[in-house]
Amino acid sequence: MNTKEKILVTALRLFAVYGYEAVSVSQIAGELGITKGALYKHYKNKRDIFNCIFEYICQLDVERSRQSGVPEQDHSDMPEAFSHVLPKSLADYMKAQFHYWSEDEIACNFRKMLTLEQYKSPEMSALYQKVLVSGPLEYVERLLCEMSEGREKQLPSPHVLAVEFYSPFYLLLSMSDGVDCKEAKEKIVKSYEYYIDNFFKRYFP
Questions:
Q1: What is the pTM for the complete model shown?
Q2: Separation CA 148–CA 50 (nearest Å)
Q3: What is the pLDDT of residues 28-66, one digit of tens each?
C-alpha cells in the first residue's frame, strides 16, 4: 500500500470512530507519523480525502454491477438497461453487495462514518440515504417493477416487494457489525444468501 492509499485508509478509520467533522488533517498525519506538509502533497484538504474515498466506493459499486449484469446507474440515466435484468443477476448483485459492505474494511468504515454523521449534517444525512437506504430501495423497486411486468402470478406492488427484499440487507448488516467472531459473521452471510434465494423462489420462480 502506497502513502496515498494509507492516508485514505487511516483517515476513514478515524472518521468511522470520531466522525468526519471531529477529525483534523493534523490528526490524520499524526496517526500516520508524517507531517501535514507530506499529506498535502497527496490531498488538498480533508474534503479532498473524503471525495476520493467516495469515488473509490462508487467505482467498486459500478464494477460489481457490471459483473452481476445489473445497471450501474439509476433508472433515469439508463432506463433501457432496467428492462433486461434477470432475477439471478439481481440476486448475485445483492449477495456481492452484502459481502462487500460487511467484509471490506473501507466499506465498513465508510458505512460507520455515514451512520455517525447523518445526525450532524444534512449533506451527510442525504448521502446516507442515497448510499444505504432510500437510494438502494428505489433502485431495487425499479428492477422488481420491470421483472413483475407480464407475469401471470399476481404479485404484491413493486414497493412492497422492494421493502421485503431490501430490509434484511440493512438488518443483517447491523447484526454483522455486532459480532466479532468470524464464524458468526459467516453464519449471517449464509442467512442473507438463503433469504435472497428464497425470495426469488417465492416470487420469480
A1: 0.91
A2: 39
A3: 999 999 999 999 999 999 999 999 999 999 999 999 999
